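Hi support team,

I'm opening this ticket because the web form for multi-chain structure prediction keeps timing out on my end. I have pasted the exact lines I submitted so you can reproduce it. The total is 504 residues across two entries, so I didn't expect it to be a heavy job. Is there a limit I'm missing, or should I split the entries? Thanks in advance, R.K.
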Amino acid sequence: MDSFAAVFLALVFLLFIVQEKALCQESDVSLDSLESMLPLPPGLSLLEETLAGILEDPETLNKVLDTYLRSDYGWKVLKELHLQFKTFHADSATALGFGYSFQKDISTRYFTKNTVDRIGQSISVSATGNVAFRRMINPQDFLNADVSVHIFGSHGGVVKVTDEVKDKLNALEDELVLIEDQETLNASPVWKEFFGIVQKNMTTQTYWDIAAVGALESDQSFRTKQYVYGLDAGLDVKAWNRNTVLASVNVFDWPFAAIRWLSGYDNEFIPRGSTIPTLLLGIKQVAPVSGDPRSLVGDGSNYARLNVEVSFKTPISSDAHFAANFRYFKELGASQGVKAANLDEQVFFTSALTLSNGLFASYSTGRLPFDARDDQIYELGFQFSF
Amino acid sequence: MADWNPNNRACTTTWTTLRVLDQTDKPFKKSGTITMDKLTYWNAAATPAMRKLQATTIATQMDNFFREVRGAKYEKGVAQQSAVEDSVETLTDAEKTISDLAGVCDDNYLFWGEDING
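Hello R.K., no limit was hit. The queue was backed up. Here is the completed structure from your submission:
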């Protein structure tokens, strides 16, 4: 429970910062106006500007966070809470802010014992969102915190091998670890033999998860908030054996299989069954508490909502990946007023090209439930792990 | 972080497993410091619920592969669900490395050919 108390305190602290920032904006108190009230000597002003620049850099803040949340400072209880300072861009304006995510399984148990096919149950809590210190410049102003009870199962994935095969794989592995060049490794007969043996013993894995979920959704100021409860269902199918029909009909990977083949990264056109998109479906009842934009068109009632999320990522080359994420929200049986105001449906799509050195370019379009309008966001940046 | 060592079967088996699961294609020597967000399953735009689902699929298949294909057994006192749960926890942390993941697997599995008394 210590970790929950610490997380709670951290969230309260962050909300306090946001609230203070909002109060400063509402009362027109800015750093500039404070500076005019407290004039500094010219040299000190320059120093202050330099320090302010460093302190407002997301990378500096991330480094400080990393030091205190991940090192042995007694704050490691917060290890499930991931904070990342970032710069938000919208309509040519920028603002500092942070993204957070928290995920914790409170209890997990299996109904099966040491089998490939398994069924289990778990209870989880999670929270996610983006908070911009200038609220108007938050292109993804949507916070979510939920508790969920899951029933899940996994079926297939491998075939048991003999002890001779295990010995053989260990022997091949001992040779593979000594190869330091990637192209040499990929072309190595040792790797081809290892991969050939393994592929024969890999099958399609189906992982499913059904969850009863209760959640609080809000914007970052909590002016708009709603309770949500219902069911989520997740499905992740992976055809680990590339020679299966399911792997070859992974049409989402066809363009990237073509790029890999034409660039010489793959020797032939091989769609990967390991990149079949993952699907999350939800049917929820939404109970608006405050700030529901639907109430402006005369409908503040509870409503049923369908959620869909599809996630896909695949390699393009050894150092590049393409990723896409699609989210869809649809109010079921929406009133004419809600439909006319275009509030019954939200679509949000993100695609990104990421390089292994941290460079990325992404494009997002659409809106999430509390966004007033569709946004188009281009990002070109650099991700760095401390 | 575990000692990323070609003589440690947990490190080598974790590496080849991630390689056959199409999560990385780098050679062993360069793989220890690769972070989870650089692996194929990690989609930065996905929600935590989606990421956990994908990480659990990978962790479950690693567990299948370790035991059925590579001959690993659970260390004494380790249950299947806790072994998978520990892997999921690492796989859902962007800043954890493959070396960290190998360390978690080393704690939970006794790999084929490992000296029981070692």
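A quick check on our side: Chain B touches chain A through 58 residues (CB under 8 Å). Let us know if the file doesn't open in your viewer.
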